[in-house]
Write a structure and sequence with these properties.
Rossmann fold; eight-stranded mixed sheet; binds guanosine-5'-triphosphate; binds magnesium ion; cytoplasm; GTP-binding
């Protein structure tokens, strides 16, 4: 997990600590470090900011020892995650009933799986979730959520292909509220994110359902594209928080950092496998510790 990003930090710290007395060489090393960050999925503007912040510290004579570099990096990285605001689904759902979550994301990122995982998580916290199959577009989408429903024992509200997803989701909430459901997890169709019809459809779902939270699901393995998707969905429909999937197989490492920097919205969970239990709350300190592991 995050191997390449970790290596980029380690290599930079090793190189830089051997040239601490030469300001000029140090600044060169920072430039090279920047490119290695980009190669590890750190969005270009984030990499530039890291390099600029480091260079400033060097210019100000604040980098004298190896530890100064490590400390600087830790501070810079953590800085991107502070002020993102917290988004705790459990505490939010306690005070807002019915609690409606709309899930957004392009196809194949793991949206439906994530919905099932979060449904299980919410049930474990004492809620009565209903999954809503408002993807009436892609063949198989309804069945897919039904399978998750059978496996988890969490009910699903389905409809017919071609139905208006906004109307379906609205009906699902009406239906569920009358039957004691308190958390609604609404699946939406994922197409190419640039698809105009999709965007209009999502806007309508949001207008009609008035979700408490809009969660974007992105696949870590898509690297910079995940960040572009985040930018796009946020501008088109608004995003309150993100789930990053397939982190179990993810070596580059930069996507969480880039999302924090570019989107400025909290990462709620990371997906670390295909099982329902494979959903972990994202902890920025753990992430930063992991990518800076062993650099003391
Ligand atoms: N390794 C791993 N696989 C995952 C994770 N999340 C989802 N997957 C797998 O990714 C594949 C796609 O997941 P789906 O949930 O069907 O994705 P989707 O976004 O709903 O896809 P569409 O409905 O086709 O747009 C499935 O095989 C999942 O098991 C994860 O965190 N780790
Ligand atoms: Mg799906």
């Amino acid at each position: 997990m995050f191997r390449k990003l970790k290596e980029a930090f380690a290599r930079f710290i090793d190189t830089a600590s051997s040239i601490l007395t030469s300001r000029e060489k140090l600044l060169e090393a920072i430039e090279e470090f920047k490119l290695n960050l980009v190669a590890s999925d750190v969005a270009y503007e984030a990499a530039e900011d890291i390099a600029a912040q480091l260079s400033r510290r060097v210019e100000e004579g604040r980098v004298k020892r190896r530890e100064d570099l490590v400390e600087a990096l830790r501070e810079i990285l953590l800085g991107y995650f502070t002020n993102l605001g917290a988004l705790d689904l459990v505490s939010l759902a306690r005070s807002r009933k019915p609690f409606k979550i709309v899930f957004l994301g392009v196809n194949g990122v793991g949206k439906t799986t994530t919905i099932a995982k979060i449904a299980v998580y919410m049930r474990g916290n004492g809620f009565k979730p209903l999954m809503v199959a408002a993807d009436t577009f892609r063949a198989g989408a309804q069945e897919q959520l039904k399978i998750h429903s059978e496996r988890t024992g969490i009910p699903v509200f389905t409809g017919r292909y071609g139905w208006d997803p906004a109307a379906l989701a609205y009906d699902a909430v009406q239906y569920g509220v009358g039957r004691g459901f308190d958390v609604f997890l609404i699946d939406t169709a994922g197409r190419m994110h640039v698809d105009v019809d999709l965007v209009n459809e999502l806007k309508k779902v949001v207008r009609v359902v008035k979700p408490n939270v809009k969660i974007l699901v992105v696949d870590a393995l898509t690297g910079n594209d995940a960040v572009e998707q985040a930018r796009f969905f946020n501008e088109a429909v608004g995003v309150d928080g993100v789930v990053v999937t397939k982190v179990d197989a993810y070596e580059e490492g930069g996507v969480p950092l880039s999302l924090a920097y570019v989107l400025g919205k909290p990462i709620l969970f990371v997906g670390v496998g295909q099982d329902y239990k494979d959903l972990k709350p994202f902890n920025p300190i753990e992430y930063v510790d992991r990518v800076l592991a062993g650099l003391r």
